[in-house]
Amino acid sequence: MPWTSTNRIYAKPSNTSGGEGVAAVATASSARAAPTAAADTGGRFELSDHGYGKSCVKLLHVYRDGEYHAIREYDVSTELKLTSESPYVIGDNKDVVATDSQKNTVYLLAKKHGVKTPEEFGAVVVNHFLYTYKQVGEAKCRVVEYPWERLQAGAPHNHAFIFSPAATRWCEVSQVRHDAVVVKSGLSGLRVLKTTQSAFVDFVQDEYTTLADAAERIFSTVVEAEWTYDSMRTADFDNAWLTVKDAILEKFAGPPDTGVYSPSVQHTLYQAEKMVLEKVSEISWIKMTMPNKHYLNIDMSKFPANVTKGDPRHHIYQPIDKPAGLIYAQLRRRPKSHL
């Protein structure tokens, strides 16, 4: 039998009733009642996770207030988890909100509500899907923001912007029906380097060790960070993201004239996380990852003095991408004692 659209739902079913029609519907409903992978396989297997959505919906929002314009460009991905396994088990699509419809929804919600922060827009999207479609049990939205900054041409330009990819901002917003919204924000690709005030000494020395103590070295990393909030209602998402970024830079670099000493990547990472929790009370935990980006000394002693002689202020290093050390930690607030 060819596929047909006889089961497609265009509107809510009416409340009218009638003998044979009701019996036929009841029989059909019983036959199709909540098909699951477990039922289909006689209890041998179960569908432990499932979902579908639209990835990488490109969106540019321009807010025009007279001659002064503001922009935010997003890459939005949506994901829905239905309460039914029917689309997977028997190929019944009547509960499926098409991914193309999800794409359209992103644009329509941006037009209707505008775009403020990635977190607030993500919350608008997940709330819409849960409120509009009763068959959706969980909705997720990931938003990646493109790093545009207003062009400074002696003064802030009214309508011109420059792409400034120092770091990428992202968030993931999710909500299970009848539960609270969960917001995770993040920062990625923040690459930093300092040429002094970094060391790594007094680590384990044994028969497996060839690395020598480094009392002076280049410190470079690409910071990834993610964090969650206790409450969406009191959080200032823009301020929180900037505070995380500034805390990383402050604890990495220190004052511009003197810098700050780093005995290890671990210590710098922890100091940055601690500053974030001290400054943003709405953040419940933060996790950072700092992989080493190595710059190794080149041994010039192997070459004759007549070819290495030059200005002693010149120092040459060899960048090494792989292998690289990987350091991470998560700092969270301890639960308050009720005693």
Mean pLDDT: 91
C-alpha geometry:
globular
Q: Could you name the ranges where pLDDT drops below 50 across 5 or more consecutive residues?
A: 1-31
Q: Count of DSSP E strands?
A: 12
Spatial gap, N to C terminus:
68 Å
Number of helices: 8
What would you give as the CATH superfamily of the largest domain? Urate Oxidase
Multimeric state: single chain
Order of helices and strands: HHEEHHHEEEEEEHHEEHEE
Radius of gyration, whole Å: 28 Å
Side-by-side strand order of the widest sheet: 1-2-3-6-7-8-9-12
- What is the fold-level CATH name, i.e. the topology of the largest domain? Urate Oxidase
Helix/strand/pairing class, anyone?
Answer: alpha+beta
Proportion of residues in β-strands: 25-35%
Number of domains: 2
Helix content: 25-40%
Secondary-structure arrangement, i.e. CATH architecture of the largest domain: Roll
